[in-house]
Amino acid sequence: MSRKKTVKSKNNTTPTATLHCKENGSSGKGTGSEMPLNSVVHPSRPSLSNSSEFYDIAFKVMLVGDSGVGKTCLLVRFKDGAFLAGSFISTVGIDFRNKVLNVDGVKVKLQIWDTAGQERFRSVTHAYYRDAHALLLFYDVTNKTSFDNIQAWLTEIYEYAQQDVVLMLLGNKADATHERVVKREEGEKLAKEFGVPFMETSAKTGMNVELAFMAIAKELKHRSMKTPNESGFKLHEYVNKEMKSSGCCKS
Ligand SMILES: Nc1nc2c(ncn2[C@@H]2O[C@H](COP(=O)(O)OP(=O)(O)OP(=O)(O)O)[C@@H](O)[C@H]2O)c(=O)[nH]1
Ligand SMILES: [Mg+2]
């Protein structure tokens, strides 16, 4: 596959936000880069990402769910491999980060949009749904309300996102055994009801963080590159197989 460099101009019109997850009082401020709203990522156009890494195809992934479920922390864990515990600073508006994954020899760039879960930013978030190729919908296993709100989030997704958007449900904070109020089985049942893949994650321990993004990247890559005779990649099957082989989630 040929790869050529393209120069990407910076644009400062994006609503700004902070990737927080504070540790020991550090500010953890503004680590995302800028990208205009509705900017198009061209699958199949070889290019150079912000991090000076080549990629073959690029997709937009949005993180959504109630405030405090751990969207920003999960993204920081995925991007930087760190969990920055401390006081919770809610995301303002929306921010994004890029990460290039090697999926079966193809460099897949994920442009990951971290949205604010707070109600007052909902109208900002709505504007981004239609460009998203994939959505990771979060609840917090220690917060029943965040789980009960999943249905409302799905209604919103069906209203604003593309019909063929790749969707996955994540029950985050699985490490918090003592505070858990939503059983894994409840998450599984809900996901089954809506026909979406599901896994529990932990931004704190890193459990299933890589897997969640890799599964999404594989699905998107297969969709965009598959030949007519090729049998499709099965996201559900991949997730179930990987979960089983990791032995992470046996009851
Ligand atoms: N135990 C545990 N705590 C977590 C985990 N992920 C996030 N937290 C904590 O949960 C709080 C909220 O995390 P954020 O990532 O900021 O939540 P958010 O979903 O981005 O919230 P908004 O930006 O308001 O939408 C922080 O205090 C984190 O330290 C996790 O996997 N385990
Ligand atoms: Mg946040």
UniProtKB/TrEMBL annotation:
CDD domains: Rab26. Pfam families: Ras. Its cofactor is Mg(2+). The keyword rRNA-binding does not apply. Its EC number is 3.6.5.2. It catalyses: GTP + H2O = GDP + phosphate + H(+). Keywords: GTP-binding, Hydrolase, Lipoprotein, Magnesium, Metal-binding, Nucleotide-binding, Prenylation, Protein transport, Transport. This is small monomeric GTPase. It comes from Acipenser oxyrinchus oxyrinchus. The gene is RAB26.
